[in-house]
Amino acid sequence: MTEERPRVIVTTDMEVDDMNSVVHLALHLNELDVAAFVYTASQYHFQGDGSHTLAEANPHWRTKGKRAYEWPVVPHEPDPEAGALTSYRPFPEGWMERLWLGPYAEAWPHLCENGGRYPTPEELVERTYVGNVAFEGDVREETPGSNAIRDAILDDDPRTLWLLSWGGMNTIVRALMSVAERYAGTPEWDDVRDRVRRKVRVMGVADGIGQDNSWLDHGRALFPELTLWRVPFIYGGYVDAKFAQEDSIELFRAPWPEENLVRGNGPLMGAYKLYGDGRHYEGEPERFQFGEHATLDWGFEGMEPLVFAPGDFMAEGDSMTFMPLLPLGLRGADDPRFSTVLGPLFRDGEPSSVPSAAPFETPQGNPNPYLRAYQEEFAARAQWCTHGYDECNHAPVIEAVTPDLEARAGETVSLSARASDPDGDDLLPRWRYDALASTYRGEGLALLEAWEACSLDATLRVPHDARPGDRLVLTLSVRDVAERPMTRYAQVLITVA
């Protein structure tokens, strides 16, 4: 199984929502091979080095500085006075190591009983590194974290290496600079650049910028063909309890998160933060103490403060980077022509085929068909932290799925699969047309979007006006009938001949 697991490296500035993303990711460490967890800096958090200022380390910063929490309305531009900062909202050092050796260690035997091989707490400590944390965008020196990334880029592991940017890009960029410093100007340089292009994928960067300017300033010129992937749908925003889509919003509102994620699930899920849960965040100004006042006030012009109910889902702003990689049966992580749990991947700088809802507007309908099931799985896995196998739910298994096929316009195709459940639960199968990943846009589109078959065996007629080369992606979902349900998927491609 190890060879098949997606290989990832997490870089995080330890924003409060990052901490929640770490906790959530911990529940999936049997499905993702996390080669390293690396502390990094960003425009929101940096530790300082005890002797320099931000301007001395990096003259091209983006931080809003003290204006972010002292000014009623925060300007869009960076704070010109932030260059004098010697640190900024420093995060609790050693937070992940304490999580691995404490709450995770207590959950670990239960997680293994329910989900198979999880890394030991000691293995996770060995994989946790300090990167370039001193200043936003700081790439002055190699660090243990940047060297861990560099070594993973250059090793012989043939799997794609997913670099997940949860903070600034500077530690990733420092690793890329180290690769260039070693090989640029040598006969191996062209081959090394090609290896990086083929092997490395970055998630968490939008519009060519992470949470600092280091990619623009240093990385892009060295590796201009590096692939930066994005997703069309949002998960884990600070406003989800107000504006999540209609079919799922109650799973983000109190009391559901506290009752299903936190309560009775031990110290690992006890580390998961909710609005108004009474926690004080070390190093944060009062404006960002969401555990104490449950009010979101970023100082954005034209945006009134949002008051949340105690126990509302707060944030996991970086889980969007690992969610698409989870092996749930969706094929989009390996082939962007298919969906992931957050829609089809698309390259940064290119348009997405999926119109995504504005973050502060209620979306119409249910644009992401996978969101509710994903949140339900979160609740099921949270229970794994303290309960034995017989007390928990486990995902269905889908096998013998119809392989991809070609068909002519007007032809009827047959679909089939087998499914079983490890707990003996009844199963609810459903085939649906995946308009997000398909390219057919003819007169029969409305009928296709309305089509569904609630059985493992189904038939579908290809529209009469489908043209050669059109792609019709059909997704099978199988949900078990359980108190904390779980869903798995399979996807079949019909190419019009």
From TrEMBL:
One of its GO terms (molecular function) is hydrolase activity, hydrolyzing N-glycosyl compounds. Transmembrane segments: none annotated. Residues 7-338 form the Cellulose-binding Sde182 nucleoside hydrolase-like domain. Pfam families: Sde0182_C, Sde182_NH-like. Residues 412-496 form the Cellulose-binding Sde182 C-terminal domain. GO terms for biological process: carbohydrate metabolic process. InterPro entries: Ig-like_fold, Ribo_hydro-like, Sde182_C, Sde182_NH-like. This is PKD domain-containing protein. It comes from Candidatus Olsenella pullistercoris.
